[in-house]
Each structure stands twice: as C-alpha cells, then as structure tokens.
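Just wondering, does anyone understand what follows?

——
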Amino acid sequence: QVQLVESGGGLVQAGGSLRLSCAASGRRFSMYAVGWLRQAPGKEREFVAGITWDSGTTRYAESVKGRFTISRMNAQNTVSLQMNSLKLEDTAVYYCAARSGVLSTLPHDYDYWGQGTQVTVST
C-alpha cells in the first residue's frame, strides 16, 4: 500500500508561484508513476503533470506547459510541482496520485490518492 500526503497549497495572486509537495509512505515510489491531478469546482478531475520514478520521464497538460515543473527527490521519496505564472483558471484542489505502471493522463488509471490541497489564484 501507498499513502500520499500533499502540502503547499494556498492563496496566491495571478502571476505568482506556489510549490506543492507529495510525500509517500508505506512504499517507495520506485516502480511507480506519480502524477498531479486537479479538480476545479463543477469540473471533472484532470491530469496536470506526471513523472515516472525510475526514468524521470515527464508529461504535462497543454494548459500548464512552460509554467509548471514536476520533479522528484529520490532520497526523500517526494514529488514536487513548481507552479509559476499562475492563472485564475489554475484554481482547484490538487491531488497527488500514484500507480504501479506507466505514466498516464487518465485519472481513473491511478490507484493511490492523497487528500488534496487547495490552490486558489486571485486577481
């Protein structure tokens, strides 16, 4: 089993930055793909960014390319999401998720989920 805990959410003005972190316990991220997914009010949950633990291969949603960066820290068993140039439409609950397979952009492919952390972007 894998337990995931997100942190780093908060309130930020448009154009600002936040860094989210996802810490895992129970098992190492090794052999897993880890993603950040978000859900805005009234919207379906959507993929934001993901990384394969072994190779470091990354993938991003088109809406965040050039603004968000996902990274991993092997020793800390942690995945981070650096969010720059935040926009109003980035407002959502952000979830860390993991699966024991290839990196996927489909929320239903992920097996393990954190509790979520709120990101609110204001004018």
Q: What stands out?
A: Residues 39 and 45 are 4 Å apart (CA to CA). The chain has a mean pLDDT of 94. The chain is about 0% helix and 50% strand. The first strand starts at residue 3 and ends at 7.
